[in-house]
Amino acid sequence: MTPDTPDPANDFEIPLVIPTGSENYLNTDSDYIFDQETIHTFDLKIPGSNLAEINADPAAEEYVEGMLIFEGDTISPVGVRYKGSIGGFVDCLTGDNPFDPSGSKICTKLSMKIKINWEGRDEKFFKLKKLQFHSMNLDPSQLHERLGYWLFREMDVPAPRSVHAKVRINDEYVGLFALTEQIDNRFVKYNYDDDDGNLYKEIWPLNFQGAPYSDQEYIDALKTNEDDNPSINIIKNFARSVENASTVTIDNILDDYLDMEEIISYAVVDRTIKHDDGPFHWYCFGDICENHNYYWYEEPSEDKLHLIPWDLDNAFENINNNINPVTPVADNWGQTRNNCEPFAYGAFDLEQRSAACDKLTRAWSSYTDLYNQKKDELNNGPMSEAIINQQLTAWQNQIMEATMEASDAHGDAITVAEWEAAIQKLKDQVEYARNN
Fold first, then answer.
1. Residues 29, 176: one domain?
2. How many CB atoms lie under 10 A from the CB of residue 287?
3. Which of the two ends of the chain, N or C, has the fewest CB atoms closer than 10 A to its terminal CB?
4. pLDDT tens track for 258-285
5. Whether the model pTM is above 0.90
6. Is 69 exposed, middle or buried (0-12, 13-18, 19+ CB in 10 A)?
7. How would DSSP label each residue in 367-390?
8. Domain ranges, residue 199
9. Can you name the residues that pair with 133 across neighbouring β-strands?
10. Which of 154, 182, 210 is the last residue of a domain?
11. What is the b/e burial string over 170-181, where b = at least 16 CB atoms within 10 angstroms of the residue's CB?
C-alpha cells in the first residue's frame, strides 16, 4: 500500500498525546528546524479514510486529523491538508482544467500544510504553529525556493527561511520537499522587534486604478490581529499619502513609511531572479488587474511597512528566456507600455499591465543610484560566482541521497540525470543574471 492508494479500512485511532514538558520540540527554537546544514525527516501517520478523503479532492484544501512523529516525539493530533495555487496542482489532479484545479490526486507528491495548533492546542513545534512542505513538482532543480529566499535574506530583506526535508506518510517515503517557513505571527516575532503589528497578505496599498482600498478590504487581508478590531491606519494613511503625492513630495512619503534600502534590495533580488509571479506582475482579467505572492507587515512603533516575498517556486525560470508561458513580466524595471492599458503577452497571450503604471512601483523605480548600488552588492556578495556556486554545490550534495531515494521509489519522481541537468541550468541562469 502506497500513499497514493490509501486503504480506508486501514484506520486507526488518533491518540491525544499530552507532552510532559521535556520534549525537545517544546524547548528549542525554530532555528533547529531551519538549520541549513541538516535534512530532517518528518513522519506523518494518517488514518486510511482520512488520507482517502484528502486524496479525493486535494484542491479543497480541507484538513483531516493525523499525527506527526519527529525524532522520537509524537505530536498528536495535528491537522493535515494539501495546499497550492493553480501551479501547485498542475498535472497532479484528474480534472481537465489547469486554471480550475479539481479531481483526485495522481502525483506522488503534493504540497502539504501541517497545523500544529490543531483544535486549539497551545503547544508549538519548535515555536512554530504550522509547517509547510512544498512539493517542488515544477522545479526540477529542487532549489528555486531555497536559493531565492536565501538571496533575499542575505540582502537584509526579511523573508521566510527554507530548507529541504524528507516526508514519510504511513511509513512510505513520499519524497523531498522544500520546508518553507509560514508567514504568520511566529514569522513576525522572529524577524521584527516590534511584533504586535498587522500582517497583510496580497493587498497592495493602492489598487490598479491608483486608489486606496476600502477599510473592509484591508481588514479582510489581515493575517494577524484579525479578531482584535484592528486599526488599519498605517497602511490606509500610506495609501492616501501616495495617492495624493506629487513627484516632488512622494520621496518624503516613502522615507516616512518605508525602509528604502530594504525596498530597493527587495526589487533588485526580485528582478534579478525573475520572480515573475510576484508583486511586479499585474495579471489582468476582465476589468481588474491585480498582483500577488507577497505580504506586508506594519511595524507600529516606527509606522513602517515592510514588503515580504512569497511563493518563489517559479523564480529563475524566465531569466534568459520565457520558459513559463504564464508568468513572464514583459517590461524591464521601471518601464511601461501600451499607455498603461492591459496588453497580451507570453505564449498564452494572457493580459498584464506594466508594474510601473502603479504609482508606488513607479516611484521606487526612480531610485536609480540606490538600485545600481544594491545590484552591485548582490552581484559582488551572495550572488558572486564563488559564493553562489559553493552554496549550490553544498545543497546539491546535501539532497543527493534523498533525490536518489525518491527516484528509485516513485515513477513520477525526477531522475538524478534530469535533476543534475536542471541544477547546471540554474547555475547558467544565475551567471546570466549576474552579467546582464
1. yes
2. 8
3. C
4. 999 999 999 999 999 999 999 999 999 9
5. yes
6. middle
7. -HHHHHHHHHHHHHTTTSHHHHHH
8. 189-380
9. 112, 179
10. 182
11. beebbbbbbbbb
